[in-house]
Amino acid sequence: MRILISDTNWATCTIAHDLRSAGFYVSIANDGAELIEIARNGMQDAVLFDLDLPDMRGKEILHSLRAILPHTPICATAAQADIETQRMMMDLGASTLIRHDTDPAVIAAQLRAYVRRSAGFSTPIVRTGHMEVNLTTQSVQINGSPMQLTRFEYEVIEMLTLRGGSLSARETITSQLGAWEEKPDTNMIDVHLGRIRSKMAALGATEEVFPTRVARGFRIAPQEATSMDACSYSEKGADNRACRQGETTHRHSSSAQDIAPPHIY
């Protein structure tokens, strides 16, 4: 998952560091104007912005972000969060308002929950044929056996899973998942998916989980995917996935190195 965050003070700098350590890709904005510019031209799973930005008021930023990303989770952060401020920000479209002193594990859990629910998944475990993706532990199993994945391979699987049956072009995948100053060649997506398919086959998968549309992109087989309570493919969830797919098509490069969680090499 890729998170866009305004890094304008020590508290948000710490949150950004903690999110990287928790396995998120993180894009950094240095003020409100840059935050809006990245949101307009990049592809993010969620946005965090601080109410105390040097160039724009919180209400102004939220209004601009919601106009650009109507279906993406947007969370505000603040040193203090009284009831009236929380009510006002959520009335204006924020998913929640997070205090700076909130435990990092709780912030990470909130973001994962908001992202998966916006994609139509009510629980973190998603099954598609032989494959089971755990969005919380960032792990994948085939027929109950864990897959050994690189960081990029897992992120490809997670991204396609969150988009359900929606087609994702190669440019879309590299735009969101490319965590370097220069995006990887789009042809490398085919290479990574080839390796993923080989690893799945070695664990006994016999069905094609990621069908390819020649010259168009990839998708996960939608008719097979289910969450633990069978609510994943609700009509609302499908609509949200389709809308979020069309919100943005390009990614702003992350300004810091991304760190893989310990179980992904």
From TrEMBL:
Gene3D superfamilies: 3.40.50.2300, Winged helix-like DNA-binding domain superfamily/Winged helix DNA-binding domain. The keyword Cell membrane does not apply. Residues 242-265 are annotated as: Disordered. InterPro entries: CheY-like_superfamily (IPR011006), OmpR/PhoB-type_DNA-bd (IPR001867), Sig_transdc_resp-reg_receiver (IPR001789), WalR-like (IPR039420), WH-like_DNA-bd_sf (IPR036388). The modification 4-aspartylphosphate is found at residue 50. It holds the Pfam family Response_reg. Residues 123-222 bind DNA. GO terms for molecular function: phosphorelay response regulator activity; transcription cis-regulatory region binding. GO terms for cellular component: cytosol; protein-DNA complex. Keywords: DNA-binding, Phosphoprotein, Transcription, Transcription regulation, Two-component regulatory system. Residues 2-115 form the Response regulatory domain. Residues 123-222 form the OmpR/PhoB-type domain. One of its GO terms (biological process) is regulation of DNA-templated transcription. The keyword Transcription regulation applies. This is Uncharacterized protein. It comes from Litorivita pollutaquae.
